[in-house]
Amino acid sequence: MRIARFTTGDDPRYALVEGEPGQEQLVVITGDPIYTPVQPTGEHVPLDRDDVRLLAPVIPRSKVVGVGRNYADHAAELGNEVPSSPLLFLKPNTSVIGPDDPIVLPPWSEDVHHEAELAVVIGKVTKDVSPEQALTRVFGYTVANDVTARDVQRSDAQWTRAKGFDGSCPLGPWIVPGLDVDDLAVLCRVNGTTTQDGRTRDLVFDVATLVSYISEVFTLLPGDVILTGTPAGVGPVRHGDVVECEVEDIGVLRNPVIRRV
């Protein structure tokens, strides 16, 4: 099952995505599926209809929790050690944008990088959950791009500016509940050229461990998002680029990059 959030020019709605690539239909459902049972309304909307726009599949009501250096090869490429426990940071919900929304490069950074990631969407209020029970608190999974101002990350003592600016958290194209994420490909392409090609089996801390650990620090609320880390191959994005982040069995998140003059 794939769950999308979309608009046809009116208020955002939710739908199941059915059909093969290029022939998808949006089967409209009532309410927000994180909070209410999935119930189709009977309305079907072709995904390729001109007035259809996919939105970020979730807007976190409280927070996006990032995890740094959670692939050993990525830690090594930036000259860092693998942390002994998950390295956490926060991104505000104002950083979230959706499929095909532009990543606007901040004027105070000259070195902005892409970071393709598997993202976890929380479905239930979660506090102090054990790793064994952690996945029962997950609603589903989507694709994220943890866009990072690398020069600012190096210069600032904390990562708030580098990773929290507006548009630094593209999410999409939809949420897939009930997915086995133990060994999925995580890729990034810039202008069609593959720059990142990793697998979730190489996560230093797996999803259950992350949900449990984070829930010891913060109460996780329905709709909160956890970014699980990025594999090696991160690199710069520039004005005019098109970035595609992909997670196997979920889909492709595409965003153009612009710098406003």
Radius of gyration: 17 Å
Number of helices: 5
**Architecture per CATH nomenclature, i.e. the level-2 architecture of the largest domain:** Alpha-Beta Complex
- According to CATH, the fold-level topology of the largest domain is Fumarylacetoacetate hydrolase, domain 2
Secondary-structure element pattern, one letter each: EEEEEEHEEEEEHEEHHEEEHEEEE
> CATH top level of the largest domain?
Alpha Beta
Task: Specify the helix fraction band.
Answer: 10-25%
Tell me the total number of β-strands.
20
Q: Quick one: overall form?
A: globular
Sheet having the most strands: 7 strands, mixed
Widest sheet, order of strands: 7-6-17-11-12-14-8
Counted up, domains total 2
- The name of the CATH superfamily of the largest domain reads Fumarylacetoacetase-like, C-terminal domain
Structural class: mainly beta
Mean pLDDT level: 97
Describe the structure.
This protein is mainly β and 261 residues long. The chain folds into 2 domains: 3-55, no CATH class; 64-258, Fumarylacetoacetase-like, C-terminal domain (Fumarylacetoacetate hydrolase, domain 2). 12% of the residues lie in helices and 38% in strands. It has 5 helices and 20 strands. Strand 1 and strand 2 (13-18) form a beta hairpin. It is globular and about 55 Å long.
